[in-house]
Design brief:
This protein is α+β, with helices and mostly antiparallel strands. It contains 4 helices and 5 strands, in the order E-E-E-E-H-H-E-H-H. The chain starts with a strand and ends in an 18-residue tail after the last helix.
Length: 129
């Protein structure tokens, strides 16, 4: 690869293959990044511009290709997060249930009357006023 240095604090150098239209960019303190499908004029403008950081962020950063290890880390971290959510839901459900498998809330707590509701066929008694 033939690296071309850039006049930038963040982007150290770029390399471009016109046949495959693949651009590699080296950054200060980071791994190189690969971009696929970069037209030759974008590469030319990046090398010639007075502000390569702005040009890179505007034209190239949206087409950034993640490296293989990054995608695997992202997938595994999402799997761990999902597993933690499921375990949390199971713990909350298990601690909320009584030994007989019912929720520990009674109708009297909801209605605030202290009495239970009538059976499905009975009508509630109306108090005279």
């Amino acid at each position: 690869m033939n690296w071309v240095p850039l006049n930038s604090k963040q982007i150290r150098a770029v390399s471009y293959d016109p046949e495959t239209q693949v651009l590699h960019a080296k950054f200060a303190g980071r791994r190189p990044v690969r971009h696929v499908g970069v037209p030759p004029h974008i590469y030319g403008n990046l090398v010639e511009t007075s502000d390569p950081e702005f040009y890179y962020k505007y034209y190239l950063e949206p087409s950034r290709i993640q490296t293989g290890w990054w995608r695997k880390a992202s997938l595994s971290s999402n799997a761990v997060k999902l597993l933690m959510i499921l375990v949390g839901a199971l713990v909350i459900t298990a601690t909320a249930l009584e030994e007989n498998g019912e929720l520990p809330i009674h109708l009297s707590e909801i209605t605030g009357t202290g009495t239970t509701s009538p059976a499905s066929g009975e009508r509630p008694a109306v108090s005279p006023q």
